[in-house]
Design goal:
233 residues, alpha/beta, Spore Coat Polysaccharide Biosynthesis Protein SpsA, Chain A, three-stranded mixed β-sheet, 6 helices, 24% helix
């Protein structure tokens, strides 16, 4: 499908959207003002995947929702000017058979699976990449050549401080393309990491931290930044 958002021209920055589309119809308009012109890639599920639980200071309620099925046409119509669509992949969760199961919280397998799938859609090399959920907005961004930037807040106002928390926010990160792609490959080793951790550590922020630590991405080449992110539900 030729999307027509900027023809076949490429930008130097790309955003990788993956997982549930959720409230993209709201967040895309806000994020386009922050990120500016960039290419966008989607690997999403065919169900919107709305989440109604409000359990975090960054979660905000969307008063108006769409009930349309997730299609390429819907994504094209929702995507604002400046976001140049390069590829869209839509899958059904029931069609995905994972080669392993985790001892807790198997829904994370779908999340990490989609992070890999959207990376596979990349059509060229970029100077800057962003991994981002569809229901998240940011007020600012931070790119440093050759480095990767993570959110300095993890959850419930808890700061990441020198790895002491042993957790890292996996909803968004950005920077050097090679490092962003490497950080997105958590699915490939998540069973081994999960098997080593106690059951109370089997959640996204903990698994992501231990993965990053295992591949030595938590060294001098990473940065923390207050994106002032919000989750829209």
């Amino acid at each position: 499908m030729e999307y027509g958002k900027g023809g076949r021209m490429y930008n130097e920055r790309a955003i990788l959207f993956s997982g549930d589309l959720r409230t993209y119809f709201h967040t895309a308009q806000l994020n386009a003002k922050v990120f500016g012109n960039c290419d966008v890639y989607f690997s999403v599920w065919d169900d919107l995947g709305y989440c109604y639980k409000m359990n975090d200071p960054w979660h905000h309620r969307i008063p108006v929702r769409t009930d349309e099925p997730v299609t390429e046409d819907l994504i094209v119509r929702l995507t604002p000017k400046g976001f140049n669509i390069k590829a869209i992949e839509i899958q059904n969760k029931d069609s995905i058979k994972h080669p392993f199961q985790m001892k807790k919280d198997n829904h994370l397998l779908f999340q990490y699976y989609k992070m890999i799938k959207v990376v596979e859609l990349l059509e060229k090399e970029y100077k800057e990449l962003v991994r981002m959920r569809c229901d998240v907005t940011v007020d600012s961004v931070k790119f440093i050549a050759g480095e990767i930037t993570f959110a300095n807040y993890i959850w419930y106002n808890k700061l990441f401080v020198n790895g002491i928390t042993q957790q890292m926010n996996e909803m968004l990160f950005m920077g050097d393309p090679e490092k962003v792609i490497t950080a997105s490959m958590v699915y490939n080793t998540i069973k081994r990491i999960s098997d080593r951790l106690p059951e109370n550590k089997i959640h996204g922020e903990s698994l992501f931290y231990h993965y990053l630590n295992s591949i030595a991405l938590l060294d001098d080449s990473f940065n923390l930044h207050d994106f002032n992110y919000r989750i829209w539900r």
